[in-house]
Design a protein that fits this description.
TATA-Binding Protein, 16% strand, alpha+beta, 243 residues, elongated, six-stranded antiparallel beta sheet, 2 domains
Length: 243
């Protein structure tokens, strides 16, 4: 019985360590304690450790089915371990189902240009120079729903709606130029602290205004669909503000 109790304690303790390592993997990157690739490596180790916990927990369940307390302890370890291992697995699954691109825009022929944000990206591995037809083709295949938003409002009114939506979304506004119809902002992801830059362009139409958005990651070959989701949610917020 003492052996079984120790097995449960080891499994639960290892599950806690794996969960803590997984959490620290992203936060350490966000706080600048290590490179994000180190964070990914820590997350991978946490996932492998979690798989060991699952095995230990299953063994504890099989050999100690007579104790309700031991069963609950083992189940808690398994559930926590599955959660930890599931995070990188989900990230990998998402990466396999989206193109390896990180520059997304509603206008692939004439993408909105960054101006004020350029100095902030001076050391960023990813350039803001649009890669052209190859990236555009991958985007259109993966995210065919991303289109410019047409609103039944003057450019001035549309600009204010776009700016309000950007602020409500929680972006850090870098520059707001109503005279140029341009908004530039930065969005920081919650866990790893990745910084992605956004530029919004408002132009006049014969009847109403057109809003285009571009979102570009500073690091990473693939954004795992983050930029497309950001643009989609942002345009939806503007649409809802019209009603």
């Amino acid at each position: 019985m003492r052996y079984l109790h120790s097995l449960n304690l080891v499994a639960f303790g290892l599950a806690i360590i794996c969960a803590g390592t997984g959490l620290a993997a992203g936060l350490g990157s966000r706080w600048g304690l290590w490179h994000f690739r180190t964070g990914f490596m820590l997350l991978t180790w946490a996932a492998y450790g979690a798989l060991v916990v699952v095995v230990l927990g299953l063994v504890a369940l099989v050999v100690n089915r007579s104790s309700n307390k031991a069963i609950l302890f083992a189940l808690a370890s398994i559930i926590l371990a599955v959660f930890v291992a599931g995070i990188p697995w989900q990230m990998k699954q998402r990466a396999q189902h989206v193109p390896p691109i990180h520059d997304i825009t509603t206008d692939t022929e004439n993408p909105p240009a960054f101006v004020a944000i350029l100095p902030l990206r001076a050391d960023a591995p990813n350039s803001v120079e649009y890669k052209g037809t190859e990236v555009a083709a991958q985007q259109k295949k993966a995210y065919p729903d991303l289109q410019p938003l047409t609103v039944n409002a003057s450019p001035d009114v549309a600009f204010q709606r776009a700016l309000r939506a950007a602020r409500d979304t929680g972006w850090d506004i870098v520059e707001s130029r109503p005279d140029k119809g341009r908004i530039e902002a930065t969005d920081t992801t919650l866990w790893f602290g990745f910084k992605d830059d956004i530029v919004v362009r408002v132009t006049s139409l014969d009847s109403g205004s057109r809003i285009d958005v571009r979102s570009v990651s500073r690091v990473g070959k693939s954004d795992v669909g983050t930029n497309a989701a950001r643009i989609r949610n942002y345009l939806l917020k503007i649409q809802r503000s019209e009603s």
